[in-house]
Amino acid sequence: MMQYVIKGGNPLVGDVVIGGAKNAALGILAAAIMSDEDVIIENLPDVRDINVLLEAVEGIGAKVFHMDAHTVRINGSSINTIRVNDDFIKRIRASYYLLGALLGKYKRAEVSLPGGCNIGSRPIDQHLKGFRGLGARAEVDHGMVVADAAHLSGGHIYLDVVSVGATINIMLAAALAEGNTILENAAKEPHIVDVANMLNSMGANIKGAGTDIIRIKGVPKLHGTTYSIIPDQIEAGTFMFAAAVTKGDVTVKNVIPKHLEAISAKLIEMGCEISEFDDAVRVVCKSRLKYTHVKTLPYPGFPTDMQPQISVALSLAEGTSMVTESIFENRFKYVDELARMGANIKVESNVAVINGVDCLSGADVSAPDLRAGAALVLAGLAAEGHTVVDETKYILRGYERFDEKLRSLGALIEQAEDDKDVARLKLEAV
């Protein structure tokens, strides 16, 4: 079992380059199979979730050619099945994007129920509602989501709750439906805009992405394209908080600062200095962090995927902070692990009350999910002594070369394969 061995106490200093947005890439990969021509995707993050989805795309017959570590060419003309039933695909939530893509292109799709991190229920009822609004039959049958239609026709769809996944899935299917679709109460996240831009570059007609009303005029077919994915706001935010918790000075490069405004605003409230450039953000922390209150909300609010990272920072801040999680109900599972490091956090329902402590102490902890795993690494970087984070497989789902990038900033972090390796690295004062 791969583990991270961390010796805390080093301020992080330097520049770090952010990769492509995982959450955008997953939707864009699904869109790529909707054309029978070559689609080239650039700035693709080399992380496990992406590689699993590429395996699934190959599994249904599409041709996938890795041009380099971050560029892939996909051709969907050779797809020979609309059934995606694979053990790998059950592990990632984005499997359901293949529903919208296959339904739009072939008017039928069968995909395993999605998996991913266990951070709370991820109902697909809004996805099914959207497909039905386009004239399809959509239901769950023996662990598979099945959708089919004689033909898809545009409709007026109102989402009961804001859902990133449903918004992307409906856009995918509606892009090749007959007539006009109006999608109201749509999600507004940057990766929604990126998927819409990708589809438009393939010949789709989508307007309003990034607002709560998206208008889609169906087209007969999609053509090939070359498209570069936007930078990952969550990877960027994670490194911004890494600078904050270690009292460092880090310039986060290859970002879109506007996508990071909610994160930057909280860091400023907590006493950090933030400098914005055209495609970079610099975070400087010179003194102890201050308390603040935060509530996760759909974009442009504070992202739920950054909640564990800010909670780690607030556990070291002066005063009492409150963190309210309004998106996923199980997102505080890391709190017990953080308590092992000396954090003082009490959780009731969806609210964490955090009393800041002077310092954290190294401990053996386990990553319960992707973002919480990254947050525990940040805690280890700020703690006194050694921290060992296991279950790093979760972290590898969404962060490319995480330990390598941290080392480039001065972090003392290494990968260990077993307990003997951990002991050796501790002796070597990693």
UniProtKB/TrEMBL annotation:
The task this protein performs is described as: Cell wall formation. Adds enolpyruvyl to UDP-N-acetylglucosamine.
Out of the domains of life, which is the source?
Answer: Bacteria
Source species: Qiania dongpingensis
Q: Which family does it belong to?
A: Belongs to the EPSP synthase family. MurA subfamily.
Biological-process GO terms, alphabetical: cell division; cell wall organization; peptidoglycan biosynthetic process; regulation of cell shape; UDP-N-acetylgalactosamine biosynthetic process
Query: Which residues are recorded with the post-translational modification 2-(S-cysteinyl)pyruvic acid O-phosphothioketal?
Result: 117
* Record protein name field: UDP-N-acetylglucosamine 1-carboxyvinyltransferase
List the Gene Ontology MF annotations in alphabetical order.
UDP-N-acetylglucosamine 1-carboxyvinyltransferase activity
The record places domain Enolpyruvate transferase at: 7-406
Q: Which residues bind UDP-N-acetyl-alpha-D-glucosamine?
A: 93, 122-126, 305, 327
Q: Does the keyword Oxidoreductase apply?
A: no
* Catalytic residues as annotated in Swiss-Prot or TrEMBL: 117 (proton donor)
Q: Which SUPFAM superfamilies match?
A: EPT/RTPC-like
